[in-house]
Write a structure and sequence with these properties.
This protein has 293 residues and is an alpha/beta fold. The protein has helices spanning 12-23, 33-48, 118-133, 161-169, 202-207, 209-221, 240-244, 272-287, and strands at residues 53-61, 68-78, 83-91, 139-145, 180-189, 198-200, 227-231, 249-253.
Length: 293
């Protein structure tokens, strides 16, 4: 195990910068110009670091507006080619409406999504920088999922469209993920609020118990109080399609977010100290792989 003091520093302020950069584009629902601009930002960032970024697009029906939409997952590959690999994922789209806002006048407005959408993506963007400068000992793939958050409440079929498609197609010929052997997926979602508290999400704990226990043990070794090794509620998120496909997948999420699906989900609610804890954990997992994963 690499000593904690030897790990590269993950800057919460740098991650917050990436949250602000995404929110400056405006709301980013699937099919929007703002989301295409974010795709180009992610691709340009990877290119500037000398990393390949693959755009994997497919056609679907927008579950909210019931119209055709083009969705695109992004995959950034880092480190050795092929072999055992660890995947980190986050959705980079935002919800088309603030349907849980306490103000009825806001409920038809699109979500800015500083925490729900931008926070996990920001961690991956900064992680990309760190791993480009400190290549991991085995392959790491960063997965940016489209179409996670467009479904009507209570209808799971309308959520996680991008991750469903990638979970079903990652073995296909010419898919960049097919060259490796995935040891597990760690999804980051809503990871920037003040007082961050991430428990053992229910589906992760039930269907990927070994990965869940190992990740939370590493967080304890690193002295990260945001990670609480206690049962948390199940959340239907981008890890579930991969669990259904037979891969161990873990969702790191703080679902106790008061501004969830409201107009209050803005950069001001984000805490760089929370981002720094999450980032420190993912850096450690990428550079000092868990035994068996």
């Amino acid at each position: 195990m690499i000593a904690a003091a030897e790990l590269p520093t993950f800057s919460g302020d740098r991650a917050l910068h990436w949250i602000v950069a995404q929110c400056d584009l405006g709301p980013r629902p699937p099919g929007s110009l703002a989301l295409e601009r974010l795709r180009r930002l992610i691709e340009a960032h990877a290119d500037s670091l000398g990393l390949p970024c693959h755009r994997l697009c497919f056609d679907a029906e927008d579950p909210w507006f019931k119209r055709p939409v083009r969705l695109c997952n992004l995959v950034v590959a880092i480190g050795p080619t092929g072999g055992d690999r660890l995947w980190f994922g986050a959705h980079y789209d935002t919800r088309p409406v603030c349907d849980l806002d306490p103000d009825p006048a806001q409920r038809d407005q699109p979500l800015l999504g500083a925490n729900d959408g931008a926070s996990g993506t920001a961690v991956l963007l900064h992680l990309m920088e760190i791993l480009a400068a400190n290549p991991p000992p085995r392959g790491v793939d960063l997965l940016f999922f489209d179409g996670e958050d467009s479904g009507p409440a209570g209808d799971p079929a309308g959520f996680c469209l991008g991750s469903r498609h990638l979970a079903a197609t990652w073995r296909d010929f010419a898919n960049p993920l097919a060259v490796g052997r995935p040891q597990g997926l760690i999804v980051l979602d809503m990871v920037c609020r003040r007082g961050l508290r991430i428990g053992m999400e229910g589906f992760s704990r039930r269907y990927a118990p070994a990965l869940c226990e190992a990740v939370f043990a590493r967080a304890a070794q690193l002295g990260l109080p945001a990670f609480v090794p206690e049962p948390a509620v199940p959340v239907f998120d981008d890890h579930v399609p991969f669990i259904e496909a037979g891969l161990p997948a873990l969702n790191l999420i703080d679902f106790g977010f008061p501004e969830w699906h409201t107009a209050g989900d803005v950069p001001a609610v984000c805490d760089p100290a929370s981002l720094a804890q999450v980032g420190r954990l993912v850096v450690a997992l990428a550079l000092d792989p868990l035994p068996g994963f």
